[in-house]
TrEMBL record:
PANTHER family: POLYISOPRENYL-TEICHOIC ACID--PEPTIDOGLYCAN TEICHOIC ACID TRANSFERASE TAGU. The lineage of its organism: Bacteria, Bacillati, Actinomycetota, Actinomycetes, Streptosporangiales. Keywords: Membrane, Transmembrane, Transmembrane helix. The keyword Membrane applies. This is Regulatory protein MsrR. InterPro entries: LytR/CpsA/Psr_CW_biosynth, LytR_CpsA_psr. Residues 1-39 are annotated as: Disordered.
């Protein structure tokens, strides 16, 4: 990164007008990241959890991770009551497959949003800026990460048509899970999330990660200039990188690709950076990971161990990153939204449910290219 231009030397895109509107609309972006934040508990989280689960795979940690199983497991938060009632939920997907809903949120709440024995939800004070569905086939030879644009215009049960992240604002994880299941027809087996501090500490524990930017681009919100080429990011810089939305050629769609590029870089660095051969570095990384993640209360230590063992053969090249097929941006009232391509997205959701993702990729393509991003 280089020193930014003097204030006023770069035009602020017209999309900034929408930012002010989003701050007062459910599902919007209330001030993004510049306002001072109160100290908060580790929930809600910012999702980068999918990357870490896959890092465990890439590293092939198997039994080594669990030498300190008790300590690591004790670090993980279990979220009670996040899975919706079984009534009217989709049936199980193909035998042996598994689907995780992984969510990132930037909360403005001044107190914890979960509590012992139930959920304390502050309507309108939470946003899910990152929503991903991780699909694991039965043979665990591949992994598919499907991102939902946060402005996707969908039916939110009980609220009508809304942006998909409004579901998280209105009703937290249970309503978001219900919304995703209603949209996709795919049953969500587990829920996971991670916080910003964990995101930073995991990056720093690996000694930083490297991403490649295609063209020079200025972030007018954070006053950062990204030059074309490779950038080695520490935790704070990585947050800035994945948060940028304004002044990117394709707005939030490019931010999704940046998030996915970071996950791929994190997995690659974990595999190539000597983490597994350095006990101290490995312990720092796993401690940062487990202190930051939250999962639903059905995920015990045994489940996480089994997940790591079942995925130990996957490499970074076996992970396919995708965005839900859509028709691009549109307006609904005063809101800028994203309209999903019902036919193409329907084919994707059917492929997930029926364990036919390999055929879907052959027919429609192999997902997002995130080696170099805007």
């Amino acid at each position: 990164m280089t020193t930014p231009p003097a204030p006023g030397s770069e035009p602020v895109p017209s999309e900034g007008a929408q930012e002010g509107l989003d701050a007062v609309l459910p599902g919007g972006d209330p001030g993004d990241d510049d306002a001072p934040r109160p100290r908060k508990r580790r929930w809600p989280r910012v999702l980068i959890g999918v990357g870490v689960f896959l890092v465990l795979v890439v590293l092939g940690l198997a039994g080594l991770v669990w030498q300190r199983e008790s300590a690591y497991n004790g670090n993980i938060d279990r979220l009670h009551g996040v899975m919706p009632n079984d009534a009217n939920r989709p049936g199980p997907s193909a035998v042996g497959t598994e689907n995780w809903l992984l969510v990132g949120s930037d909360t403005r709440a001044k107190a914890g949003t979960t509590g012992t024995g139930g959920t304390v939800w502050k309507t309108g004070q939470q946003r899910s800026d990152t929503i991903m569905l991780l699909h694991l086939p039965a043979d665990r030879k591949k992994a598919y990460v499907v991102s939902f644009p946060r402005d996707s215009w969908v039916d939110v049960p009980g609220y009508g048509e809304q942006k998909i992240n409004a579901a998280f604002s209105y009703g937290g994880p249970p309503l978001l899970i219900e919304t995703v299941e209603h949209l996709t027809g795919v049953r969500v087996d587990h829920f996971g999330a991670i916080d910003f501090n964990g995101f930073k500490s995991m990056t720093d524990a690996l000694g930083g990660v490297t991403v490649t930017v295609k063209n020079d681009v200025y972030d007018p919100k954070r006053h950062v200039e990204w030059s074309a080429g490779k950038h080695k990011l520490d935790g704070e810089q990585a947050l800035t990188f994945v948060r940028q939305r304004y002044n990117l050629p394709n707005g939030d769609f490019d931010r999704i690709k940046r998030q996915q590029a970071f996950l791929g870089a994190l997995a690659k660095k974990a595999a190539d950076g000597g983490t597994i051969t350095n006990p101290l570095k490995l312990d720092r990384f796993l401690s940062a990971f487990t202190k930051s993640i939250s999962v639903d209360d059905k995920v015990g230590a045994g489940k996480l161990r089994s997940l790591a063992l079942s995925l130990r053969g996957i490499r970074a090249s076996d992970i396919t990153f995708m965005t839900v097929p859509n028709k691009g941006s549109a307006s609904r009232g005063r809101q800028s939204v994203v309209l999903l391509d019902r036919k193409r997205s329907g084919a994707l959701f059917t492929a997930i449910k029926t364990a036919d993702m390999a055929n879907y990729v052959r027919t429609y393509g192999g997902g997002n290219r995130v080696g170099t991003v805007s």
